[in-house]
Specification:
The chain has 8 helices and 7 strands; from the N terminus they run E-H-E-H-H-H-E-H-E-E-E-H-H-E-H. The chain is α/β, with parallel strands linked by helices and 225 residues long. The strands form 2 sheets. A 5-stranded parallel beta sheet has the order 2-1-3-6-7, with helices on both faces. Helix 1 runs parallel beside helix 8 and helix 2 crosses helix 4. The protein starts with a strand and ends in a 5-residue tail after the last helix.
Length: 225
């Protein structure tokens, strides 16, 4: 069984989401013999942000693989036939996004550190998530609509925030999933998602201690499958 461990917090040793992901991985490693772990730190080595040039490189590759729906095929074909090129720098960035995608596809379990900054996930985490939207690999177009191809994975999201989710939702500051793009997860077929939350971290030392104790108790009950 393979596990992909992703951290995205910029706070280093002071990060609660990093503490939670480390605890989750340690627990699963202890309870799952032979578990193989791949680690990626998005704060130290961020993946390329989406850009017009990377998007074209992606569309061109999908076009050449026959993985695009008809209306997009025509647009990309016109650009390619018109002489549009992908330069070496863009090709290298696009190749890096494919490495990220391959790591995700190879994993049976994904442990994802998702802190919340200014009412949203960090841009480096969003850039990683953008890499997962890959027609022909994580989803496909069919007569019935979009069909997810990445089902069967277990996703564990370690979510940390200064406020408390149900209060922030009622105030209109978060969606019910806490601003994790759960629609994309559904599109690519992820159905087994577990949240480990540490909330109210900015509400004083007592609430912070309680939040960590609650999250760590949740972790102790997690199973790999």
């Amino acid at each position: 069984m393979k596990l992909l461990h992703i951290d995205s917090s910029i706070l280093g040793d002071q990060s609660v989401s990093r503490q939670l992901t480390a605890s989750i991985v340690a627990h699963l490693k202890q309870t799952t013999p032979g578990l193989e772990i791949t680690y990626r730190d998005l704060a130290v080595a961020p993946v390329p942000q989406q850009s017009p040039t990377i998007q074209f490189a992606k569309m061109k590759a999908l076009y050449e693989a026959g993985a695009l729906p008809g209306h997009i095929v025509e647009m990309v074909a016109a650009a390619v036939q018109g002489g549009a090129k992908v330069d070496a720098s863009t090709q290298a960035e696009f190749a890096e996004t494919n490495v990220v995608l391959d790591e995700f596809l190879a994993a049976d379990i994904v442990v994802l550190g998702a802190p919340m900054y200014n009412f949203g996930i960090p841009s480096q985490l969003k850039a990683w998530i953008d890499c997962l939207a890959a027609p022909g690999k994580t989803f496909k177009y069919s007569a019935a609509g979009v069909e997810g191809l990445a089902g069967g994975k277990k996703l564990i999201i370690a979510s940390s925030r200064g406020g408390i989710l149900h209060r922030l939702v009622s105030d209109g500051l978060y969606g019910s999933s806490g601003n994790i793009p759960d629609e994309l997860l559904r599109v690519i077929g992820i159905r087994d998602a577990t949240f480990v939350r540490a909330e109210g971290l900015s509400s004083g030392p007592e609430q912070r201690k309680l939040a960590l104790e609650t999250a760590l108790a949740h972790i102790s009950a997690l199973k790999a499958a």
